[in-house]
Amino acid sequence: MKSPTAGLALLAWVTACSSMASNEDMAREIDPVAHDIGPAKQTDTEGDRQGDGARAPLPAPPMVLSAADRARFRPLPARPGAVPVLLFHGICPASCSPEDIYGVSQLEFARMMMMLESAGFTPLSIADYDAHMRGAEVRLPIKPILVTFDDGRLDAYRGADAVLAALGARATQFVITAFPQGNAPSFMSWSEIAAAQASGRWDIQLHADAGHVRIRVEDTPAGGPVYGPFYSNLAYDPVTWPEGAHLEPFDSWKARAEGDISRGVSLLSARVPGYRPIAFALPYGDYGQYASNDPRIAPELRGFLKERFGCWFTQPSSNPDFSTPSKTHELWRYTIKSTSTADTLYDWLRARSSQATGQAPAQTPAQAPAQTPAQAAGHDEGGCCVARAPAPGFAAAGLLLAPAALLARRRDRHAG
Predict the structure, then answer these.
(1) pTM of the complete model
(2) Which of 2, 121, 319, 406 has the highest CB neighbour number within 10 Å of its CB?
(3) Is residue 176 part of a domain?
(4) Residue 312, domain extent
């Protein structure tokens, strides 16, 4: 039997959300050639957006699980020393557009976060996660988890912030600094990024400056262009470099790729009080370890990242293991897609929680098959740009009041 209180809360939430801009109105554009996040419309300014109610965080849906969900999402066994890492991109107010394969509805995101709480997981700060991964002394909860977002999408901030607040939880947002720098309206502005960092619910880290794109890396035998990730390839241009293989010099690649990362760190340091460069999320999870048109790139970029960040994230597998302290600093995340639900996420956590610590996924970076740049251009595990059908939201009729134990736990978190 549905609780009248939960029903009224759901009605109030639906009414509040219906008055705000929907995901269908996002001015987010996809580059038709590179199949990547293209430059969003740059028609407004930072000042124009101050006090814009359409950009404010959405109210949280009723933070309750159905009786069936409470019965299903039982506490999972702890894996000492192991930390699962989740990767989100967008949170849509209702359902996501068909093109957004990495977006989930706010209802399903809330259900996922409540599932994590019910299963006994506690979200970490990026600083505690990094310290643990480097083997430093840090006190962790019994079942830690790291919740991350890529790109700095406005809908993610709007859809997730109140949910995190209601649960006393936190997340890490990896931002593309070129977007706030260019006033791209579909992404967080500098003031929103700074406010998120100051809230204590969000840890801001770098995803790229202008380097989350694919560039021309070679031509097919028929003369058609082939595109590959910005960081992991030399640029190809027969006009600029008419001799030899028509590739940019290695020193030019270093200035372009490593300069882009350094510029992003500098922008965050200047615009976001409290920011420290702790972690880096590689666009496409790729620094040249999968394929590159120059074998020097992967070891050079790996060394560059190791000097500047405690850890960085790749996506070697769609079914990664939990992360454990690592000397390589190279860590994995489980990608949430539009087809993901709290149920599928719980099933992955349950399978990985019950295995022996340190067991590798089916395909590790060292086992990844060799690819040409042409083949690698299709590698997009953990990317952020194209989409399928929206994830189903959970039925309103299934929303019931949260058990007293969970409510007390949330109060304790807020008190801390």
Answers:
(1) 0.79
(2) 121
(3) yes
(4) 64-393
